[in-house]
Description:
Elements: E1 7-13, H1 22-31, E2 36-42, H2 48-55, E3 61-66, H3 71-75, E4 80-81, H4 83-88, E5 93-96, E6 102-105, H5 108-118, E7 127-131, H6 135-146, E8 151-155, H7 159-172, E9 177-180, E10 190-193, E11 217-220, H8 229-236, E12 241-242, H9 244-258, H10 266-272
Parallel strand pairs: 1-2, 1-3, 4-6, 7-8, 7-10, 8-9, 10-11, 11-12
Antiparallel strand pairs: 3-5, 5-6
Amino acid sequence: MITGTTRLIAHLGYPTESFKAPLIYNPYFEKSDIDAVVVPMGCKPEDYPSFLKLVFRLSNIHGALVTMPHKVTTMRLLDDVSTNAKVAGSCNAVRLGPAGRLIGDMFDGEGFVRGLLRKGKRVEGAQVLIVGAGGVGSAIAASMAGAGARRIVLHDDNAATSAGLSGRLKTYYPMTEVSIGSTDPAGFDIVVNATPLGMRKNDPLPLDVSRLSPSTFVGEVVMKEEITPFLAAARARGCAFQVGTDMLFEQIPAYLEFFGFPTASADYLRSIARLQ
């Protein structure tokens, strides 16, 4: 039930038809007797800057989840942002701070890294290859560096994108060795596909899987299907791996903590979600 005391979490993006967050958060709130609800709000890009400010003027607003195409725009509309958001250059969560200040964070990478750690993969001291330096790749790189990765190699078809992320990582995480390289996965402890390759049926693989060592941990961000062609090929090589939806479910406990709600395990959230 939504009542006059229900705290609203706006799910901001456009279009809203593919939004999955309400089907995960709202069952959790219901099961936990938390008087809060996630509400999809479709906002076109041209209206977003003014709408974000207005939605946080509501007396019953608690926070916002931010998705495409607003993650980058949100950065310039906030009063305070986390280091991970600064490195990623984008934001996917906003809450009210003291005196009405808007505070933002980025949890895509946090979810990815939490998933690795829960599977027993050590990130501290690891050598990491990230293929794709866009929004999700940047977030993963930031969280990898924050978790103590020793070396991160970036590859993106857009050289300027790679260079920008490399510079931000070096600024905020100077203890991590960062460079721009090829897609060759040989010699890395962790290899991440942070590109959209795998979304379409005839997409090429993001890298030469024959160069993967069986001891390499492989991560995927594509969520269209659980075992993408890339993960299937890595699995055939004997690699341990993480599916794309793990990043989604593992970041939700971090969101709950950010918003000040009781947290929950990713497994529990999966068990009660009402995804089709």
